[in-house]
Design a protein that fits this description.
The complex is a heterodimer of chains A (56) and B (547).
Chain A (H helix, E strand, L loop, with lengths): L4 H44 L8
Chain B lengths: L1 H5 L1 H32 L6 H11 L20 H31 L8 H57 L3 E2 L6 E2 L3 E3 L6 E2 L11 E3 L5 E3 L2 H7 L1 E3 L15 E9 L5 H18 L4 E2 L3 H15 L12 E8 L6 E8 L1 H4 L16 E6 L5 H7 L5 H6 L6 H14 L8 E6 L2 H6 L8 H10 L3 H10 L2 E6 L15 H9 L46 H6 L1
Helix pairs in contact in B: 2-4, 2-5, 4-5, 7-8, 7-16, 12-15, 14-15
The chains are: A mainly alpha (56), B alpha/beta (547).
Chain lengths: 56, 547
């Protein structure tokens, strides 16, 4: 028996919301490592360039 | 350990492995979801839903199983989907764990010699399983919140719509009466136009708020006030098709009873003729929603208008004549029921008189020639006037008692009903030289004086309101003396019909002409039977002005 359109619509909405939540969580987790690494590597460089003293 | 964490050769490798495990977990969930919702869904079909409902709440006598229509997603399908996804995730996890579990825990315990490898694989799979179940948890949370939010909107909305419909039903007094089996229900069953399946309960609810989807996929409107006009109404008991609008418009049922040859059928046609004239003056359309009613009305009106004799009603014939007063959603369905007088002599027995039980107003036809005092006045039972009238042979009191007993036995609250006691054949009485009263009280007193005090007392005791009429079943203009339409007009009016009780009230309405298109004849304002007052013939003022 064919799936009625209202069932398909409800499923689509729920799957879309789930997908967006998982995507956000996944990107957040996946992005944390590179960002943390970037921060660690960029920190000494900024100190070397005295970027923290430009405003002063 | 901290030295390893500082080493990106180690950290990146671990991160990549963890990422792969997470990706595997997501894949396990995604496959489970795709299988549950698209490839192999657990679709709750209407038949399964109905079986569940019946199992949870068995169908009682006189009830119907829930209709075969697709339930709203949040009510049932969301649970089925959630369960199917959960089962698929469990199956997928079991599948990826099957071989490693056999390798490491059953068959090849020796693998533990190479400890790091099994530990790594088990950790990898454990992480994948955790991720897949976390994904499922997110899905379950979203599904639950969406379902709860939908229910929080749908349930109050359905309750609101049901209340509005119930209020309308009680205000307009809508019902659905079957003219085949005389079964009366608050609303009819409504047939799907595609598959013909009857939907017994079209109220807003778990099957739909504004529309429902039949098992065959066809959309049907919910609420009787809408469904009655868009799909075919049918009797819930016998399945006979009913008039469009059944269950959505005011439904008035008027049974006519009386002894053999009392003049029931002729009264029915004559009163219909009078109603049509009054309705025409009031600008209300009178139509016949079904072919048998149309044919009966055509025949009966022809008899009355041509002043021909009415044939005796066969004992096998059930006369149920339905007409629609007005048009569209504000129209009213009026059912007039008649049966051969033989049935009323044993009214408690036959089921053919079931229409008596659900009548909102009854008409009792009393043949004056069957009253002993009248016969004596006219010169005995063999007097020419009595023979010409073909008087009813039985005692009029007996017929009334039989019907009243039947109503009592059936538990019908007649004390809330209305009764019109109609003395028929007034034209024959007048031609025989008898003076007849006018007005309800005068007619009651006249019957009392003729020795019918038992009938007058019993009628007033048994019914909430009784009025007495004297009529001649001829094509008499509404409002004239002996107007046969007066009893029916009164009964229709007290049940909220738009038809004016007094034909004079219809004069100012558009279309104040007879159905044949002729202007209505000049009328005297007779109050015969209305308001319980004595008749007082007042000449038509316009006629006086013209003269």
């Amino acid at each position: 028996m064919r799936t009625p359109p209202h069932v398909a619509a409800y499923r689509s909405v729920i799957v879309t919301i789930t997908f967006l939540i998982l995507l956000s969580a996944g990107l957040g987790l996946a992005g944390y490592g590179p960002l943390a690494t970037l921060h660690r590597t960029a920190g000494p460089v900024s100190h070397d360039l005295h970027l923290d003293r430009i405003s002063g | 350990m901290s030295r390893y964490l500082q080493d990106y050769h180690f950290t990146y490798a671990v991160a990549i492995v963890i990422g792969c495990a997470a990706a595997l977990g997501v894949a396990l969930f995604a496959v489970a979801l795709a299988r549950a919702l698209a490839a192999d869904p657990d679709l709750v079909v209407p038949l399964a839903e109905q079986a569940e409902q019946v199992k949870a709440r068995p169908v009682g006598p006189g009830e119907f199983a829930p209709d075969l229509a697709w339930p709203f997603y949040p009510f049932r399908q969301s649970r089925a989907d959630l369960e199917r996804v959960r089962r698929n995730v469990a199956e997928n996890n079991a599948a990826v764990w099957r071989r490693p579990a056999r390798w490491f825990f059953h068959d090849a315990v020796g693998w533990w010699i190479l400890f790091p490898i099994p530990a790594a694989i088990i950790s990898f799979l454990f992480l994948a399983s955790v991720v897949s179940w976390l994904c499922f948890a997110v899905y379950a949370l979203v599904s639950t919140i969406c379902t709860a939010a939908s229910l929080a909107l749908l349930v109050p909305a359905a309750a609101l719509l049901r209340t509005a419909e119930r209020t309308r039903r009680s205000r307009v007094r809508t019902e659905a009466a079957c003219v085949r089996c005389f079964h009366v229900t608050p609303w009819a069953a409504y047939q799907c136009p595609a598959c013909g399946h009857p939907h017994h309960d079209v109220r807003p609810g778990r099957l739909g708020l504004f529309v429902r989807r039949c098992e065959c996929g066809t959309h049907l409107p919910t609420r009787a006030s809408r469904a009655a006009w868009r799909v075919t109404p049918a009797c819930k008991r016998c399945g006979a098709p009913m008039a469009p609008g059944s269950g959505a418009v005011r439904d008035i049922r008027v049974p006519v009873f009386g002894d053999i040859s009392a003049g029931k059928t002729r009264f029915l046609y004559a009163s219909l003729n009078g109603i049509m004239v009054t309705a025409g003056r009031a600008g209300l359309e009178v139509t016949f929603p079904d072919e048998p009613s149309s044919e009966q009305a055509e025949f009966g009106l022809g008899v009355i208008r041509a002043r021909r004799e009415t044939a005796k009603t066969s004992t096998n014939t059930q006369v149920a004549l339905t007409f629609r007063l007005g048009s569209g959603r504000r129209s009213e369905l009026v059912h007039l029921f008649d049966a051969a007088g033989e049935h009323f002599r044993a009214a408690r027995r036959p089921d053919v008189l079931r229409f008596l039980d659900d009548g909102q107003g009854l008409v009792y036809i009393l043949d004056p020639f069957s009253i002993e005092a009248i016969r004596k006045q006219l010169g005995g039972a063999d007097a020419p006037a009595v023979r010409a009238a073909r008087a009813a042979a039985g005692d009029p009191q007996l017929t009334y008692d039989e019907v009243a007993s039947r109503l009592r036995d059936a538990g019908v609250p007649a004390s809330r009903g209305k009764l019109a006691v109609v003395v028929s054949k007034a034209d024959l009485l007048r031609s025989a030289g008898l003076d007849l009263p006018a007005g309800s009280e005068a007619t009651a007193q006249w019957l009392w004086d003729l020795g019918m005090h038992n009938l007058v007392m019993a009628a007033r005791r048994d019914f909430a309101e009784v009025r007495f009429f004297v009529i001649a079943s001829q094509a008499i203009s509404p409002g004239d003396p002996d107007d046969p339409g007066a009893p029916l007009r009164w009964l229709l009016r007290v049940h909220g019909s738009r038809l004016p009780a007094d034909p004079a009230d219809a004069d100012g309405a558009p279309g104040a002409e007879t159905p044949a298109g002729r202007p209505g004849p000049s009328r005297s304002r007779s109050r015969s039977g209305s308001g319980g007052r004595h008749a007082r013939v007042v000449p038509d003022e316009r006629a006086e002005a013209r003269s």
